[in-house]
Design goal:
Largest sheet: none
Number of strands: 0
Number of domains: 1
Structural class: mainly alpha
CATH topology: ABC transporter involved in vitamin B12 uptake, BtuC
Strand content: under 5%
Radius of gyration: 19 Å
Shape: globular
Helix content: over 70%
Order of helices and strands: HHHHHHHHHHHHH
Length: about 280
């Protein structure tokens, strides 16, 4: 059993992949509770697709795909904020416009500049293909995300549950929404390398959804989300190595199983409560 666990760790690229997966898991899970409670699942999906043109342009220019993805994510965030500012458009409408436009641009550039096979790992993830430079960039971004959540936790909590009270005590829900969108953009870029554009939404939503089945306390939900994401990443990592399956799908399927178990536990607790 020990040999089975240690064998993959003999290779440097495998260790980098595991570290990258854990970094992405922690970053996504740290925001997952807010994504679930604020009904922002569509935002995560939109950002995951909106970064595609940045990735394609970065590939064509020969620069870091990470930088290209981050640039596109920042542009998408400001676009969503600009079009939905002061109620000119509903936020979900603005997100839909940005999501469709950026993703279509990415597909257009993909068809003109590179072949699908060249960027297939970006669309579907490749946890074993993380380079040392990408790992450093990911670590910096994850540190920024965690710091942002820690510093603004109380403010984000208030605006998530009672925006009117937040305004009454001098907070700016719009400014905090921008901040949360930026953190989501950074986190999305981090997760792309491990699970890919297509599946990044699951890493942002499923841990928080699973934790919400068990607890209603935000701090505990965040803690459980991180634990669930880490466990799913490790399981998916070993499945990717030994079963030769796509890392992203293995991680997401592991998260889905965790969600189903958490749902079952929650149902049992509610049944016991009603029975009592």
């Amino acid at each position: 059993m020990i040999d089975w666990l240690i064998e993959p760790l003999q290779y440097a690229f495998v260790v980098r992949g595991l570290v990258a997966g854990l970094l992405a898991a922690v970053a996504c899970a740290s925001l997952s509770a807010f994504v679930v409670w604020r009904g922002m699942a569509f935002v995560g999906d939109a950002l995951a697709h909106a970064i595609l043109p940045g990735i394609v342009v970065a590939y064509a220019l020969g620069i870091s795909l990470f930088i290209g993805a981050l640039g596109a994510a920042v542009l998408a965030v400001f676009g969503i904020g600009l079009f939905s500012r002061r109620g000119h458009l509903r936020e979900d409408t603005a997100i839909g416009v940005i999501f469709a436009g950026f993703f279509a641009l990415g597909i257009f550039l993909l068809s003109r500049m590179v072949s699908f096979q060249d960027l297939g790992h970006i669309l579907f993830g490749n946890i074993l293909g993380v380079a040392a430079g990408d790992l450093v960039a990911m670590a910096i971004v994850v540190a920024l995300v965690i710091a942002g959540v820690a510093v603004g936790f109380k403010e984000l909590l208030v605006t998530s549950f009672d925006p009117s009270h937040a305004v009454a005590i001098g907070l700016s829900p719009e400014l905090l929404r921008y901040g949360l969108l930026m953190l989501l953009a950074l986190t999305t870029v981090v997760a792309i390398q491990t699970v890919g554009v297509v599946l990044v939404l699951a890493l942002l939503v499923t841990p928080g959804a699973a934790a919400s089945m068990i607890s209603r306390q935000m701090v505990r939900i965040m803690g459980l989300s991180i634990v669930f994401a880490i466990v799913a990443t490790i399981v998916g990592f070993y499945a990717s190595y030994y079963a030769n399956v796509a890392s992203g799908s293995a991680i997401v399927l592991s998260l889905t199983v965790i969600f189903l178990v958490a749902w079952g536990v929650g149902q049992r607790r509610r049944s016991a409560s009603y029975g009592g």
